[in-house]
Design brief:
51% of the residues lie in helices and 11% in strands. The chain is mainly α and 197 residues long. The chain is elongated and about 60 Å long.
């Protein structure tokens, strides 16, 4: 069993043995959670069972062998297994397909691209590039190492976001233009922004 602590969050996790050790591993997880609850009671703060989540990661075939209907007891409450959890801003689906994370990134980027389109007529080209890089580009870059080995569909979604950023900056909505050079320039600015941050 392993434990990770953050400012206001604790994560307890165990590796589940594929050779039928699921119940033993879940018992270790429950015992670890009980120890954490006991420490919280002795130290003053309380665990919030409504914010406690449990998830099992694995392949689709392995997850079919796990009874997800029962949940586990933690902090005095029966907590059902989640389909997805958010970990430091990354949405992780139980099969680790990254589709839920990509949906969240696309939704957030599209919101900010629409906002940029509204204010773009009042911005200079350099200011628009700066907004695109710092607000939208940073969302594209956050946790992108998790996308290693992901599907082409996810990469296509990222490409569409980059095209939409370039169109918003150049104010060429609906016009077929060559966006490759502008995308490269925005990428260079994103790299510089990350380097200097």
């Amino acid at each position: 069993m392993s434990l990770e602590r953050y400012a206001d969050d604790i994560q307890i996790y165990v590796a589940i043995c594929p050779q039928g050790g699921l119940m033993n591993d879940l018992c270790r997880l429950v015992n670890g959670t009980d120890d954490v609850c006991r420490w919280f009671l002795e130290s003053g703060p309380l665990l919030n069972p409504t914010k406690t989540e449990v998830i099992v990661f694995g392949t689709t075939a392995r997850l079919k062998a796990v009874d997800m209907s029962i949940g586990i007891m933690a902090a005095g409450s029966n907590i059902k297994f989640s389909q997805a959890v958010t970990l430091l801003g990354a949405n992780l689906y139980r099969c680790l397909t990254m589709y839920s994370h990509m949906a969240s990134v696309v939704r957030s980027c599209n919101f900010h691209i629409r906002a940029l389109c509204h204010i773009r007529p009042r911005l200079t080209l350099d200011a628009a590039k700066s907004v695109a890089v710092n607000i939208v580009g940073s969302r594209l870059d956050y946790c992108n190492s998790l996308l290693h080995g992901t599907s082409q569909r996810n990469f296509d979604r990222l490409q569409r976001i980059q095209n939409a950023i370039a169109r918003a900056v150049t104010q060429t909505r609906g016009v077929v233009v060559q966006l490759t050079e502008l995308r490269r320039e925005l990428q260079r600015q994103r790299v510089e922004f990350i380097y200097w941050s």
